[in-house]
Amino acid sequence: MAAHAVPPLSYRNIRLLRTAFLQLHQQQQDGVFCDVILQAEGESILAHRCVLSAFSQYLRGRFSSEEPHSHKVLLELHELKAKTLKKL
């Protein structure tokens, strides 16, 4: 599959972006629509696959081999400290 160029963002509404991220954070806290479990040092964090892949080329590659929405993906991040994972 060829990579598609992303068009530049021509409209920005800071209030809308803030609201979207606050809602995503609340969903994460409630475990709603979370389809990934990140694990480091025995601690688990629920996350949204689409958000992680939007910010990380590495994770986008990891998720691209998975069937979308088929099941929760468990990623054990041995090279990461739990404290660092929580900050992400």
Automatic annotation (TrEMBL):
Entry's Gene Ontology BP terms: positive regulation of transcription elongation by RNA polymerase II
Pfam families: BTB (PF00651)
Residue stretches spanning the membrane: none
Record-linked InterPro entries: BTB/POZ_dom (IPR000210), BTBD18 (IPR042915), SKP1/BTB/POZ_sf (IPR011333)
Residue span(s) of domain BTB: 34-88
Entry superkingdom: Eukaryota
Protein name: BTB domain-containing protein
Organism: Latimeria chalumnae
